[in-house]
C-alpha cells in the first residue's frame, strides 16, 4: 500500500502499480478472515503460527479435525482499539494523567466480551501484575514527597484499576461469546505465584502477582466475576495464600506509615476502626467479589478443604484486616438460599465453626458452661453477623434439628429433601456451639430472634387457619424449644464476654412489649374467603424473602400496638415467660384474623361492626386487650396451651447446656 502511494505521488503508471493496488485491496478485504485463521490455528492445540495461519518451523500439527473456538474470533479493529486502551493503562500507571483521562472514553467497553478479552490478552498476565505494582510505586514517591499529591494519584489509580477489574471479570467468564483461553488462565496462575519486581524501586522490592490481582479485585468489588474464574484463579489464590502463610507466617497488610513496604495503589481501608489506608488483602478482595452472586460464592467456597482453611487456619490473618467480614459476605451469598447447595454449605459451615468454638468451652465453679478466652474467637468477629443471617434463613431446618437431633453427618448427606423442598441436616450440638459465639453480636442475635419469631408466627397462624390443633400445639412446643436454645446461648455469650446476664432477656421482652405477636400474617383474612387450601401459598409468601425479613416486618408493624403485655411480664419477665406471652399474643391475633371463636357473648368493648366481629388486637386499648384475653381463653374454637411455650423454652435452655456438657465429656 505504501509503495503504491509513492508511485502515485510521482505519477508513474505501470501494470505493476495496478497489481499492487489489487493485492492491497484483497488484503483489506481478507484481513478479518486472515486474523480468524491465525487465531483458530493458535487454538488448535496452541500451535505457533504466522499471520497467515501457517505453522511455524518445527511445529507439529495434530491429525484429525480441529475444533473451532468461536470465542477467538475478534475483529482486528476491536483488537486495535483494545491495544490503544492497554497502552493508555500502562501510561497512566507510569503517571501520565492525560492518559488516564483519555482512557475514560473506553470505560463502557470494559463490559464488552470481545474488547475486554482483547485488552486482557494485550496486557498479558505479567501486565496485570505490573500495573498495580507500578501504581503503588508512584504512591510511595508521592507519600515520600509529602506534597499532598498522593490522594490525587490514588484517585486516578482507582479509576484505572476499576476499569481493569471490570475487563478482567468479563474476559475470564467462559460463558461469554468471547473470553481468554485456558492457556491464558494457566499463565495467569503461574504469574500469580511469581514475585514481580516493583517498577521504580531499583529492584529492591517485589510483590507477588496475586497481591496485584487482589488490588484489581478490590477496585471493582461489584464486578460480576464468574464461577469459572473462582474455580480457576480464585481457588489457586486461596491455595497460594495458604502455602505462603504456612511457609512465612502472617504477612502484614502494609499501611501508609510502613515506609519500606509498597503502599496501597488506591484508597483502601481494610482495617476496621482505623482511618489508615492500607493495601487490600487479596483474599478478602477475592471473597468480596465472590459475594456478588450465589454462583460465584458457591464456586469459590464450595469445598470443605478451602472453607476450613478460610474459617480456621487463616484466623490470625483475618485479625490483621477485616476480621472475616469479607469471608462472611461470601458465606452469606453462598449459604442463605433455599437450594440444596446453599443448605449443604450452611451445615458444613456450622460443623467447621463448631469445631472452632469447642476448645473454648469450659465449666465454671457452679457447673455451668462458659466460653474461655473469648477474645480468640473475636478474630472472626466480622463474620458473626453473616453467620447469624445464614442460620436465620434456615430456621425451619433448625427447629426440627433440635427435635430430631440427627448425628453429625458426612458431606454427601448434609442436605436432603422433604415434600419436594431441600432441607439442611444440622446437628443440634453444632448449632448450639455456633450460637454461643454468634449470639454475642447484637445484630446477629436480632436476625436470629426475628427469624424465630416469624417462623412461630407463621406456624401458629397456619394452625389456626386450618383448625389443626395438633399441628398448632406441636409447633408451639418445637419453636419454643428452639427459642430456648437461642436465648440461653445469648445469655451465656453475654456473660462470657463480661456483660450483664439480665441484658439477655431484654430483646425478647421488648418484642413482647411492642406486641410483635399481635401482628397477623399479611392478608390472613383471605384464607376464610378463599378456603383453607389458600393457607399454603399465603404462608409461603410471608417468608418468601427470608425469615429474618419477615421477622423484621412483624417488628415494624408492632411498634404502634405495644403496651398490651401485662406489666409484671413486661418489666420482670425472663425469656421463658416472655416466650409464653409471645405465644399468647400470636394465638390471640390469629384467633381474631381467622374468626376462630364462638359467636356468643359478643356484647364486649372489643367487638365492633354489624355483624359483630372482634376488633384487631393491634387496635385495642390496653383495657380492651386485657378483657379480650380473658374472653378468648373461654371462647376460642382452637384451644392451645400457651403454658407449653414457657416449659419448652426452659427445656430448650437446659438442653443447650446438656448438649455442650455431653460433648465436653466426649472430648475428654
Explain what you see:
With 668 residues, the protein is mainly α. It has two domains: 76-335, no CATH class; 348-661, no CATH class. 61% of the residues lie in helices and 4% in strands. It contains 29 helices and eight strands. The protein has a two-stranded antiparallel sheet. The protein has a two-stranded antiparallel sheet with strand order 3-4. It has a two-stranded antiparallel sheet with strand order 5-6. Strand 5 (415-418) and strand 6 form a beta hairpin. The chain starts with a helix and ends with a helix.
Number of helices: 29
Contiguous uncertain segments of 5+ residues = 64-68, 566-572
The domain count comes to 2
Distance between the termini: 86 Å
* Mean pLDDT over the full residue set: 84
**Content-based structural category:** mainly alpha
* Strand residue percentage: under 5%
Please report the total strand number as a whole number. Answer: 8
Spatial extent as radius of gyration: 32 Å
Strand order in the largest sheet? 1-2
Main beta-sheet strand count, sense and barrel state:
2 strands, antiparallel
Concise structural overview:
The chain has 668 residues and is mainly alpha-helical.
Write the layout of secondary structure elements.
Layout: H1 2-9, H2 15-43, H3 76-94, H4 97-103, H5 113-145, H6 150-171, H7 182-193, E1 195-197, E2 206-208, H8 209-219, H9 227-248, H10 282-290, H11 294-301, H12 304-313, H13 315-319, H14 325-335, H15 340-357, E3 361-363, E4 369-371, H16 374-377, H17 384-393, H18 395-404, E5 415-418, E6 421-424, H19 428-438, H20 442-465, H21 469-496, H22 506-514, H23 526-530, H24 534-542, H25 547-558, H26 567-572, H27 575-593, E7 607-608, E8 613-614, H28 622-635, H29 643-667
Antiparallel strand pairs: 1-2, 3-4, 5-6, 7-8
Helix pairs in contact: 1-2, 3-4, 3-5, 5-6, 5-7, 5-8, 6-8, 7-8, 7-9, 8-10, 9-10, 9-11, 9-12, 10-14, 11-14, 12-15, 14-17, 15-19, 17-20, 18-21, 19-21, 19-29, 20-21, 20-24, 20-25, 20-27, 21-27, 21-29, 22-27, 27-29
